[in-house]
Amino acid sequence: MNNMKSPSLPLLTRLKLLLLHLIEYISSRSDGTINRRLFNLFHLKTSAPAKKCINNVHVSTSDVVIDPSRNLWLRLFTPARATGPLPLIVYFHGGGFNKYGPDTVYFDDMCSHLAARLLAVVASVNYRIAPEHRYPSQYEDGFDALKFIDQRHNDFIYVNTDVRKCFIGGDSAGANIAHHVTVRAAEQADQFSQLRIAGMLALQPFFGGEERTDSELRLTKVPVLSVHATDAYWREFLPEGADRNHPAAHVFASGDEQFRNLDFPASLVVVGGNDPLQDWDRRYVEWLKGCGKRVVVAEYPYAVGFNKYALDSKVSSVAPEFKHPSQYDDGLDVLKFIDLYEGRSDWDRRYVENPNAFHASYALLELPEFALLLDDVTNFDREQVNSN
């Protein structure tokens, strides 16, 4: 049963979600695949080169071809008002592995804002999509893009950029790709002459398994994502005959001995309180911590964001008599929790009345979650840059 109240969304957001639903309905075939010709008629794209001004920071975009035979390319987002050396974010867009690209208007906007706010160069990768290209095509494209940047960045990045301070990031399916690419880069670190990974950004990452989690069973009437949709995405992406316990989806199913010994970077994991994937995301966090990896959690149970966002255990260590906010029953209890911390130097009081943190809400600029996301990513990146 869905016991999370439906989010009260701005009209603009509801119109965007309606358009998204209509496009997917019109272009989806009965077997779950996408009619590309119909989809592309409605797919909102942006062109490059282009320039934007975001909060008085000018951001320029340009496209760089890596391998035309597989349509592998990246879009660069470069802030102008920066003295460098700038960190680099290699970003993988979401879309269930089967749609969208760096030129999709939502991801172009998102990466532009990340570049402007963080004063970082963002390289958003266009990878092959399913079902035409199944696993491991997306991971191979991501790793090859990373090697291309390591070897050729001086040829196309024209500002002072420090590739030794590189972050691998993504949202949803893109966060899944970011994890697997980061693992492979850690396993094959000797293939990189200059690039070093300072951190990983996983925004509502897309993981799964054959088991149905509580959040998947409970959150059945929320925007954007459903269990029916996630099952279809996995069917189109995983190898023929594989189930959802495949290690691409269920990354922590096969044990942790090998991963424990990897030099895996600190990670920021964003969890949405109205996202059916939240239980998988929390398990991922616990797995990372159990393997001795540093993980930072930005969880918006009722669109509450935590600055300094250290580990979940920080709540109980500061005030052990109170529960973590994700365990609270309603918004009034969350307000009580926030009031406890108001005035503390290590917590931000950021409350939004409606639980809008559904899957992909971070990509909608008009929602408060977008501002919270920029805050959390900025703080995490700066902390990692300063510590390396």
From TrEMBL:
Signal sequence, start to end: 1-28
Xref: SUPFAM superfamilies: alpha/beta-Hydrolases
Transmembrane regions listed in the UniProt entry: none
Residue ranges annotated for the Alpha/beta hydrolase fold-3 domain, each copy included: 89-301
Top-level taxon of origin: Eukaryota
Keywords linked to the UniProt accession: Signal
InterPro entries hit by this protein: AB_hydrolase_3, AB_hydrolase_fold, Carboxylest/Gibb_receptor
One example GO MF annotation: hydrolase activity
Signal is among the record's keywords: yes
Similarity-based family: Belongs to the 'GDXG' lipolytic enzyme family.
Entry protein name: Alpha/beta hydrolase fold-3 domain-containing protein
Organism expressing this protein natively: Salvia splendens (Scarlet sage)
